[in-house]
Amino acid sequence: MAAPEGDEADLLNNDDGYKAPEKKTIDELVKLDAEDSSLQRYKECLLGGTKLVNPFPDDPRKFILAKLEICVCGGPTHEFDLKNLDGLKDKPIEMVEGSQYHVQVTFYVQHEIISGLRYAQKTTKSVLRSVDKVMLGSYAPRATPYVWRSEDEEVQSGALFRGHYNVTSVFTDDDEQEHLKFRWAIKIVKS
């Protein structure tokens, strides 16, 4: 993982006291406690069998973001153009103050288990700054995508909160591997 630039260190800092377990391959996990048939059935259910599935075998990434959406309740769904991550910051997503929304992430995991996948987001507007972090969970490789949905949240209201915000988003894991990082923008408008 590259060293964080400038004041982005707080985006990657995981000071929650959690210590990740020792990393093991899928093979090692399957062979662990092999004599316990109940545990083996549980592992097969959890891992989807012992055969490693790579939906994109020529792609070396472990985490592949398929879709990222901001879904406004009773309003539009904003889907990010993942083919042009660099252009996202130039096209702010308009959100009406006071509206309810949630974030939905659709992604693939391949090659090995990702333990402790996290999403962190730093939002800035002049002196206003917030960092939000959420643990998405641990995921085994599989052919079908995973879908994670956030809780509903409310867009902040009031003259102070209206305007353009710069956002930096990053997906990391327990091994402190940075899977994806990109910048985008939001514009909060009057209702």
UniProtKB/TrEMBL annotation:
A molecular function GO annotation: Rho GDP-dissociation inhibitor activity
Pfam families assigned to the protein according to its UniProt record, in alphabetical order: Rho_GDI
GO-annotated biological processes: Rho protein signal transduction
Entry annotated with the keyword Membrane: no
Location(s) in or outside the cell: Cytoplasm
Transmembrane segments: none
One GO cellular component term noted in the UniProt record for this chain: membrane
Keywords per UniProt: Cytoplasm, GTPase activation
Chief subcellular location: cytoplasm
Family affiliation: Belongs to the Rho GDI family.
Full protein name: Rho GDP-dissociation inhibitor
Phylogenetic lineage: Eukaryota, Metazoa, Spiralia, Lophotrochozoa, Platyhelminthes
